[in-house]
Amino acid sequence: MVPLDHYLILGAVLFSIGAVGVFTQRNALIIYMCIAGALVP
Length: 41
What we know:
The chain contains two helices and no strands. The protein is an all-alpha fold. The chain has one domain (about 5-40). Helix 1 packs antiparallel against helix 2 (about 30-40). The chain is elongated and about 40 Å long.
C-alpha cells in the first residue's frame, strides 16, 4: 500500500504546477486546463 505522504506530495506538486500555469499564461483555455489539473488530485 502507498503511504499517505506520497499522495500529499503528488497533490502539492500538481497544485503548484497548476498555480504557476495560471499566473504565467494569458490564454483562457490554458488557464482553464491548469486549474483543472490543479483540482483533479
